[in-house]
Amino acid sequence: MTPHDLAARSRAAIWHPCTQMARLDAVPPLPIARGEGPWLFDTEGRRYFDANSSWWVNLFGHADAGLAEAIATQARTLPHVMLAGCTHEPAVELAERLSARTGGALGHAFYGSDGASATEIALKMSAHHWRNLGQPEKCEFIALAGGYHGETLGALSVTDVAIFRDAYAPLLRATHLAPALHESGALAAIEAKLVELQGRCAAVIVEPLIQGASGMRMHGPEVLRELRALCTRQGAHLIADEIAVGCGRTGSFFAWEQVRALGAEWPDFILLSKGITGGTLPLSLVLTTDAVFEAFLSDDVARGFLHSHSYTGNAIACAAANEVLRRMETLLPTLSGQAAALREAFAPLLHDDARIENGRQTGMVLAFDVKPGVAGERFAERFHLAARQHELLIRPIGRTVYLMPPYVIDASIARWLVEVVARTLNDVCSV
Ligand SMILES: *Cc1c(COP(=O)(O)O)cnc(C)c1O
């Protein structure tokens, strides 16, 4: 089987996500045979550095031996059992470990299968909590401009990325949109919305520190501290979607730890997925507080939280996540050094290259925008294709080029990365 054959079979048999299938001849999918560390190898043995961690899920590199072992051991012992009426050690251990990371503040874990389902669960749980407290009118949500929370209908309702949303807008629930947190005046606008809703807002949902899918738009922890206080004052939940930014991506295990360091309380919900299994298996969690949990305790089944997926709390995925958490204990302290290596290597490019603007970084996410005049048509596609020729697998978002690599960065890898990014820019930019 040649790589070309695999791409052709793929085109015929697979409807690829986030892909205009009519462009598949121009952008044939890379036939990947195996991975090792940050590298992916195609069926002809060519290698590619996975600069976007395979859609932000990979933490330690590919085919990690420790994760493989944890998965194999669990698969031989207990791959899966339903989590209604049964429980198992990997799921309990994972919930306990995450609770401990919040000092018990978010001590109740509900399991989902992917990021979008975590969003669905949090929205339902928030509104149902208010209903159980006798406030059924509290069932509306405030989301932020440029926010992304997944693409199932409920999650898409609180997502504001036009390309994902527009075609499906008629299917969605109305949501109140407020300015993104990096905009000045965002807090005042959110407060005005909360006041206008007169107690009908169940929750405000945000991506802490980095709005990922709309182009790595960053804000500091201070505005999140103010938002936490504002939601408390106005009696609305705060949902922190850490699906992308959790698991060390911003330098701390939870992005919210940086808000805590400023004296803020925890959010009412934290959503985790993506990195939680280190890029091996789908799994998500919704972490919440005693106050939310207790509002569901009753003799009445209908007052309990009703949401179920067949693979909820899958034991193999939980075992992988437990291994991720064990490994993160030694890895977390190295992340500031890894982030510094990226920062130092990219500083000359970000400061001096006249073709780019808005260089920015939060922890292990580094991004810049190519200026509109230089980017040209189909910039993301052309950049992606050109980068392949330099052993780099990267998918810009519009004109935004970003690196969100596995946590394997040292000074020499960082220098190599900036060199290939610069060469790719030379290939695709018109000046
Ligand atoms: C990826 C992502 C989701 C959705 O997760 P899926 O597993 O792709 O459904 C939700 N929120 C954020 C912030 C994300 O980055």
Automatic annotation (TrEMBL):
Site (Participates in the substrate recognition with KAPA and in a stacking interaction with the adenine ring of SAM): residue numbering on this chain: 18
Modification N6-(pyridoxal phosphate)lysine occurs at: 274
One Gene Ontology term from the biological process aspect of the record: biotin biosynthetic process
Function: Catalyzes the transfer of the alpha-amino group from S-adenosyl-L-methionine (SAM) to 7-keto-8-aminopelargonic acid (KAPA) to form 7,8-diaminopelargonic acid (DAPA). It is the only aminotransferase known to utilize SAM as an amino donor.
Ligand binding (pyridoxal 5'-phosphate): 115-116, 241, 309-310
The EC number(s) this enzyme carries: 2.6.1.62
Complex and partners: Homodimer.
Residues noted as binding substrate in the record, renumbered to the chain: 55, 148, 274, 308, 395
Top-level EC class as recorded in UniProt: transferase
Pfam family, one: Aminotran_3
Catalysis: reaction(s): (8S)-8-amino-7-oxononanoate + S-adenosyl-L-methionine = S-adenosyl-4-methylsulfanyl-2-oxobutanoate + (7R,8S)-7,8-diammoniononanoate
Pathway(s) the chain acts in: Cofactor biosynthesis; biotin biosynthesis; 7,8-diaminononanoate from 8-amino-7-oxononanoate (SAM route): step 1/1
Record SUPFAM superfamilies: PLP-dependent transferases
GO CC, one annotated term: cytoplasm
Protein name: Adenosylmethionine-8-amino-7-oxononanoate aminotransferase
Cofactor entry: pyridoxal 5'-phosphate
Assigned protein family: Belongs to the class-III pyridoxal-phosphate-dependent aminotransferase family. BioA subfamily.
Keywords: Aminotransferase, Biotin biosynthesis, Cytoplasm, Pyridoxal phosphate, S-adenosyl-L-methionine, Transferase
InterPro entries in the record: Aminotrans_3 (IPR005814), Aminotrans_3_PPA_site (IPR049704), BioA (IPR005815), PyrdxlP-dep_Trfase (IPR015424), PyrdxlP-dep_Trfase_major (IPR015421), PyrdxlP-dep_Trfase_small (IPR015422)
Molecular functions (GO terms): adenosylmethionine-8-amino-7-oxononanoate transaminase activity; dethiobiotin synthase activity; pyridoxal phosphate binding
Cell location: Cytoplasm
